[in-house]
């Protein structure tokens, strides 16, 4: 800003003083406004936004200290230079504490007033520049933050978009599944795949890539494609797990592996064959006796770097589904959820929820209830790991 | 902080005043230190970090205003209350502008001094609290920024890790390839795949997922897996593109598509068969006549949502590779690079670089030269799109 183009507001109840200062400062090419008391002065500041205010202390209506308070209260950006003929140290200190930039004693030396104005303008310029730079820095940082948030949000949407948005319709059965990631992105995954054109056999799978966040998420996205090919021409869960294991080995990082459990439902026979890759969290609820049994057999994780000949073996178990029976597969984010005291939710409580709700609940409501129960258990403690559940219910 | 436990430093050259204030303030349970001039006072501030300094203006060695300057210069966190018997308005204003918190006139009223100290302590407490909150906010934001940067960096590493880290060894040929993403992650992709166990036929591919950043990156990561399966049992580029197209349709978002060019080199016959999915950027340099010809035939992008029967047709062309011949496939980030005047790099300049360098350069140095030439062309303008190049050179 050109200093000479600066606007000066002179606030004084004595017309002589206003006129003398106005002439002098206009001669020096400042734009000069005047006011005869604090109320008028505040009104002019609001409209004209002067760069500097030369402010008399003793005035009628609203005095200088009152006007200083008005400037502070209204957060009006200007520099105030106090002028007074009735100076005491107390009032000078009061004015400075009230936000004045400088203090001039009347009668005012014209040289002096211009020197003080120049100094105030320079100080204001520096303060504005400083504020501008601070704001630019903040905006740049906010922008970066927004862009990164957007990218991570997209990764989240992309990952969630790979999992089923709705459940398949199966005569005599209900199925529901959901993945609740702890971060924007994570390593949990579930899916349903028809194993034949005639839709007589449906595979459902819950998997969990080791690690968290983006590292795990990128592997789940690739896993989604690998799964699609590895189910082709296969119907036994053990064969699918074996295919996935072989396809992942050496391709997902030496320290990364995938645990998972696959159930393959033969809709006509009402039999689910289950195989597990280090993913024991699968329960079968039998309505006739009200019991909940763990049904996942043992097996090593998929994609691990193992000596030749080790792993790749996935025994199967069978579960016969009768009316009211449930099959629930879930990820370790559920039993490992912790409350404020550090206690775990644990598998036993999952079994309890299944037993307690199996009678009345649909697959969907049982799943919702389980996830809500974990949330309530955790209380204020944030969710630290992804949670995934698939529930299959035999209706008739 | 308990106000009563606050430390007060009294700086005055008159011993009587120091003693009176010390007694009075100690009686009120303040911890009181004394100094008899500004130099001593500054030394005590540095060591004892008093909460409040009661500072005489007129002193030998270093006076009050000098000591105020020392406090400001040393960025010493304390509240200074000026005490003076020789007050003028100018000096009071000077002291306040110099950073003093308040101003007391001697002889000092003991009630007054305690009131002013309490006010200064409260003000200091608020200022500290404010600074602490500002800093906590800044740290939280920095932490978030760091975590997000880390996640995006991981996505970058994951994506880059899917592309070849080194080139295959082929008798009689050299091959070099590189992807330079514009952002942390992007939609460009390249790879080499042996089409048979005996390694007699090598496919090399450059692909570009539409869109940018994370959205495109997640599709390239999935594309990497799909490619692996779709090359199986196939040797003709047109069949591979057809397989990829069918596998991607309806699975990568309605508005997303993948362009790409595949060359399949028969090492023994020295013939490259080339097919392209809307990716015309492939040049064949023939050493015998020094000419550069575009060799990518036309074809629609892969994975597009098209009416039934439309697309999926990828004609092939053949290029015979003789000693010194080059095949260069690259992505549109190269011809579409812009300089400060908005001019494009353009395919013609790629052809020019190939022609100019083909004689002396290895596949690797030609690729490096092309990428460097684009960088130099762009100058200060940032890279806006990913750049990928694969160069195959026939050696003998």
TrEMBL record, chains A, B:
The lineage of its organism: Bacteria, Candidatus Handelsmaniibacteriota. PANTHER family: STAGE II SPORULATION PROTEIN E, STAGE II SPORULATION PROTEIN E-RELATED. The keyword Ribonucleoprotein does not apply. InterPro entries: Bact_Sigma-Reg, CheY-like_superfamily, PPM-type-like_dom_sf, PPM-type_phosphatase-like_dom, Sig_transdc_resp-reg_receiver. One of its GO terms (biological process) is phosphorelay signal transduction system. Keywords: Hydrolase, Phosphoprotein, Transcription, Transcription regulation. Pfam families: Response_reg (PF00072), SpoIIE (PF07228). GO terms for molecular function: phosphatase activity. It comes from Handelsmanbacteria sp. (strain RIFCSPLOWO2_12_FULL_64_10). Residues 7-121 form the Response regulatory domain. This is Response regulatory domain-containing protein.
């Amino acid at each position: 800003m050109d200093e000479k183009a600066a606007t000066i507001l002179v606030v004084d109840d004595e017309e002589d003083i206003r006129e003398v200062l106005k002439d002098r400062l206009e001669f020096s090419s400042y734009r000069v406004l005047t006011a005869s008391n604090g109320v008028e002065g505040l009104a002019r500041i609001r409209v004209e936004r002067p760069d500097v205010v030369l402010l008399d202390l003793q005035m009628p209506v609203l005095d200088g200290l009152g006007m200083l308070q008005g400037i502070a209260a209204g957060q009006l950006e200007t520099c105030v230079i106090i002028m007074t003929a009735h100076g005491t140290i107390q009032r000078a200190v009061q004015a400075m504490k009230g936000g004045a930039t400088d203090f001039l004693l009347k009668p005012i030396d014209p040289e002096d007033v211009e020197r003080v104005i120049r100094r105030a303008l320079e100080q204001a310029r520096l303060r504005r520049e400083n504020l501008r730079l601070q704001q630019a820095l903040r905006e740049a940082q906010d922008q970066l933050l927004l862009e990164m948030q957007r990218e991570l949000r997209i990764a989240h949407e992309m990952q969630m978009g790979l999992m089923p948005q709705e459940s398949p319709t199966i005569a005599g059965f209900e199925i529901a599944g959901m993945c609740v990631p702890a971060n924007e992105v994570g390593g949990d995954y579930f899916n349903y795949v028809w194993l034949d054109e005639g839709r007589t056999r449906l595979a459902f799978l819950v998997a969990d890539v080791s690690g968290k966040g983006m590292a795990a998420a990128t592997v789940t996205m690739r896993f989604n494609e690998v799964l699609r090919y590895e189910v082709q021409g296969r119907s036994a869960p053990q064969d699918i797990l074996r295919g996935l294991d072989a396809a992942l080995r050496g391709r997902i990082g030496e320290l990364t592996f995938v645990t998972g459990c696959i159930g393959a439902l033969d809709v006509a026979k009402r039999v689910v064959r289950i195989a597990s890759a280090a993913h024991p969290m699968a329960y079968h609820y039998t309505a006739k006796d009200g019991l909940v049994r763990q049904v996942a057999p043992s097996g090593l994780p998929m994609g691990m770097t193992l000596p030749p000949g080790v792993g790749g073996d996935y025994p199967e178990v069978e579960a016969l589904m009768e009316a009211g029976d449930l099959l629930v597969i879930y990820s370790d984010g559920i039993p490992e959820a912790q409350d404020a005291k550090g206690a775990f939710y644990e598998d036993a409580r999952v079994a309890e929820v299944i037993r307690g709700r199996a009678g009345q609940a649909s697959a969907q409501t049982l799943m919702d209830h389980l996830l809500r129960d974990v949330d309530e258990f955790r209380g204020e403690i944030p969710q630290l790991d992804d949670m995934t559940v698939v529930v299959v219910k035999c209706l008739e």
